[in-house]
Amino acid sequence: MLDKIQPAEFAEINVAYNQVFRPGRLSVGLVLPLEAYGVGAEPTLQGHLEAARRAEVLGFVALWLRDVPFNVPSFGDAGQVFDPFVYLGALATATDRIALGTASVILPLRHSAHVAKAAATADVLSGGRLLLGVASGDRPEEYPAMNQSFDDRGARFRDSFEYIRAAGSAYPKHENAQGKLSGGIDLLPKPHGARLPMLITGVSQQTPDWVAQNGDGWMTYPRNAAAQGQVIADYRRRVKAAGQPEKPVMQSLYVDILADPAAPPRPIHLGFQSGTDFLRSYLHEIATLGVNHVALNLRFNQAPIDTTLEHLADVVLPDFS
């Protein structure tokens, strides 16, 4: 069960962070695009802004965008195709209250000054609704296309992370392999809230202690209950040992929701096909393990997406609002 001494709230960072993440509770978001597309196929992105607005109206708390610079055929997944920061700008004007997250920006493939400026811009334009998930990247083919080395991406991730943190302060002084901030220039705009909430995906080529010390939360993948409970408990032990306040954990989950609520689960890539009865029980289970947010991916869903979103809103979301 969850630790009884968890705080009433996580650290106050921005609107999205404190809306999506609450100790001892699970919230539910969605991975864009909100359409089904097969392995190796590209999404059509037809009606994508309308779908985002519909998700907000139905009560989902976050929309998540991926950073996929190149379509690598061996991975079979082009993501949502659009550049995440340009898309965040469009979503910021198309929606009013739903959190907008990246899962995740590949820091070694972007200069950290550009990431800091683009992320702060999206945060301000959306009224503090940005969650900045970051990662070191896992598609080796993308790195030579940008004249970057795959093997040292961990060091570049760490330097970029620290640069972005520094850039959030006024006239920062900071120097590493990403560049020198002399204190005589400033990067604008500043984030809407206290800082950009930065969530680290996996370990991103860092040590678990570095992840626990530096991130504002942790993004991970589905595992069986025993394993997931162990890794979350380990993460929270490391956070506490580092003298840090409690931090949230979120995970992704591919689902294919069947019409029969009682349909039993069948494994699919990083998730399962099932009826809503099993999905609800699964979400309650991971909540007890310490997961604070789940990002549902409907890419492999066989029923019409609109129908599934309505069904989830009616049957599942009331348990996790």
Features:
two-stranded antiparallel ribbon; 10 helices; about 20% strand; about 325 residues; about 35% helix; 8-stranded parallel barrel; TIM Barrel; 12 strands; alpha/beta
Description:
This protein is α/β, with parallel strands linked by helices. It has a single domain, classed as Luciferase-like domain (TIM Barrel). 34% of the residues lie in helices and 19% in strands. Strands 1-2-3-4-7-8-9-12 form an 8-stranded parallel beta barrel, surrounded by 4 helices. A two-stranded antiparallel ribbon has the order 5-6. Strand 7 (198-201), helix 7 (208-214) and strand 8 (217-220) form a beta-alpha-beta unit. It is globular and about 60 Å long. The two termini are 20 Å apart. Residues 1-5 have low confidence and may be disordered.
Largest sheet strand order: 1-2-3-4-7-8-9-12
Helix content: 25-40%
In CATH, the architecture is Alpha-Beta Barrel
Number of DSSP strands?
Answer: 12
> What is the general shape?
globular
Secondary-structure blueprint:
Elements (H helix, E strand, L loop, with lengths): L14 H6 L6 E5 L16 H11 L3 E4 L18 H11 L4 E8 L5 H14 L4 E6 L6 H4 L7 H15 L5 E4 L2 E4 L15 E4 L6 H7 L2 E4 L4 H17 L7 E9 L8 E3 L2 E4 L1 H14 L3 E5 L7 H11 L6
Parallel strand pairs: 1-2, 1-12, 2-3, 3-4, 4-7, 7-8, 8-9, 9-11, 9-12
Antiparallel strand pairs: 5-6, 10-11
